[in-house]
Specification:
With 123 residues, this protein is α+β, with helices and mostly antiparallel strands. Helix content is 22%, strand content 28%. It is built from three helices and six strands; from the N terminus they run H-E-E-H-H-E-E-E-E. Helix 2 packs across helix 3.
């Protein structure tokens, strides 16, 4: 079976979105939705968890400083890419689950994206 390309994956993700339109206090209309994506990684669940929650690993991945504690903790905040991405960790379950809210600096004030990552070790 041929692997899906980016446009196919994007199209499939868009089909599964539950779209909602909101209007900010400045009158800007935003279309938001929920997307569920499932990926298979060539690493252990522990390695993936560490790459997403440890400051040193995040800095290697992004190529820039990460302003956060040494590792993610519930309620802890983070700032990446020179302040262009900010957020906080809502739930952190070692090697199993990461829930965070984040936003781009360019988004309307108060607009956040909630990301829930569930890690399942299969082998």
């Amino acid at each position: 079976k041929k692997a899906p390309n980016l446009s196919t994956a994007t199209s499939e993700a868009e089909k599964s979105m539950k779209k909602v339109e909101i209007t900010s206090s400045e009158g800007v209309k935003l279309e938001v939705g929920e997307v569920k994506i499932e990926e298979t990684m060539k690493c252990t669940g522990q390695e993936l968890y560490n790459a997403l929650t440890q400051r040193d690993m995040i800095q290697i991945f992004t190529g820039g400083p990460a302003k956060m504690d040494q590792e993610a903790t519930k309620g802890g905040s983070f700032e990446l890419l020179g302040g262009n991405i900010t957020g906080k960790y809502i739930e952190v379950v070692p090697f199993t689950k990461i829930v965070k809210e984040w936003r781009l600096k360019s988004w309307a004030p108060g607009h956040m994206s909630k990301v829930e990552i569930t890690i399942k070790q299969t082998k």
